[in-house]
Amino acid sequence: MIRSLSKPHLRCSTARRSHFSKRPSLPSKSLSTGVSRITVRFGSGFGTRSMSTSSSRSVDQLLSGKNDDHGGVIVEMSTEPVDAVVYGSLLRASILHWRQEGKKGVWIKVPIELVSLVEPAVKEGFYFHHAEPKYLMLVYWIPETPSTIPVNATHRVGIGGFVMNEKKEVLVVQEKNGILRGTGVWKFPTGVVEEGEDICDAAVREVKEETGVSNKILILVRLNFAITLLVWKHPSMVFVTTEFWLLQIDTKFVEILAFRQSHKSFFEKSDLFFVCLLQPLSFNIQPQESEIEAAQWMPFEEYTAQQFVQKNEVLKYISDVCLSKREGKYSGFSPVPTSGSFSTTESYMYLNRHCLNSP
């Protein structure tokens, strides 16, 4: 790899490398590579100049980043190709520079196109923080003190839908796939909240919007995303495999009745499961044959009498909450639009309006 540096055609241009930036010239530092000596110098001259063939070479640029709010720096790499050896030299020089500046945490966002740069970064002490479909985030803690870099997202958020019609029947399904396949268990629809989506919107979407068909709803159910979409008075939460099914039912979000936190439920992540009350606006059911064995409106008492529900403590609590709500003895949390001091984006506060407005 070191030999590749000596090829005359290996150049780095500041016009094409938006993630490199020039820095004032400082005394050069020698870094041992185990093969030959590379001199990393902070300063100018790394633009379009060809690499020399000597064993001592100059790297005259640094990785360009922006300061974060906690004394660190964030580097967002472009997708333009970078030689891994050159990148390693730039990284070592940049870390030295950031250390001299008193920086703490370093974040490097590596696009999937530059996956070859992960190895040299890891060799310099960087480690994985999180990954998304198009990039990997690497982090490095500079000071000789315990790291205060926050951990990756710790929870997944699910919703469960309880839907009850005027006959006090609840909407339930039987799965054709997954851990409940062939068990005869009837359960409420469940789903997962998408990134940037409000809980109340996710509940409605799970029962309507995902099909893209007028007056029909699609509920997406995923393994270990404990979520219950509550539509009018009764929920049942359970872990299920990915399922797609259609119901010709419109719903309106009412409130969150309860939520449950569990741990190590999906790739060691924790899970927040919100039981949501939705009001049905239509009632005709049409399950998708490939994914759902059956779907129907079932008397509430018949649902709760299932052995599976009776032996599951979480489901029993959910059933009790829904029963109390049906009898007017329980108040959940309804969404109130709010704005905060740190963002102009509207968000929701879920609160008990009944108790709040009581004298």
Structure description:
It is a single chain. A hairpin with an 8-residue loop joins strand 19 (334-338) and strand 20 (347-351). The chain is elongated. It has helices at 2-5, 84-100, 118-123, 199-207, 300-304, 307-310, 313-326, 353-356, and strands at 20-21, 29-32, 37-40, 58-59, 62-63, 66-67, 73-76, 105-111, 127-132, 135-141, 155-163, 169-175, 190-192, 217-221, 243-247, 251-266, 269-280, 292-299, 334-338, 347-351. The chain has a five-stranded mixed β-sheet. A four-stranded mixed β-sheet has the order 13-11-17-16. It is an alpha+beta fold and 359 residues long. The protein has eight helices and 20 strands.
What's the arrangement of strands in the largest beta sheet? 6-7-8-10-9
Overall geometry comes to: elongated
Pattern of helices and strands: HEEEEEEEHEHEEEEEHEEEEEHHHEEH
**If you compute it from the alpha carbons, what radius of gyration comes out, rounded to the nearest whole angstrom?**
28 Å
Distance between the termini: 76 Å
Question: Count of DSSP helices?
Answer: 8
What level of helicity do the residues show? Answer: 10-25%
Sheet with the most strands, sense and barrel status: 5 strands, mixed
Give the number of DSSP strands: 20
Compact overview of the structure:
The protein has eight helices and 20 strands.
Strand and helix map with partners:
Elements (H helix, E strand, L loop, with lengths): L1 H4 L14 E2 L7 E4 L4 E4 L17 E2 L2 E2 L2 E2 L5 E4 L7 H17 L4 E7 L6 H6 L3 E6 L2 E7 L13 E9 L5 E7 L14 E3 L6 H9 L9 E5 L21 E5 L3 E16 L2 E12 L11 E8 H5 L2 H4 L2 H14 L7 E5 L8 E5 L1 H4 L3
Parallel strand pairs: 3-4, 7-8, 11-17
Antiparallel strand pairs: 1-5, 2-3, 6-7, 8-10, 9-10, 11-13, 12-18, 14-15, 16-17, 19-20
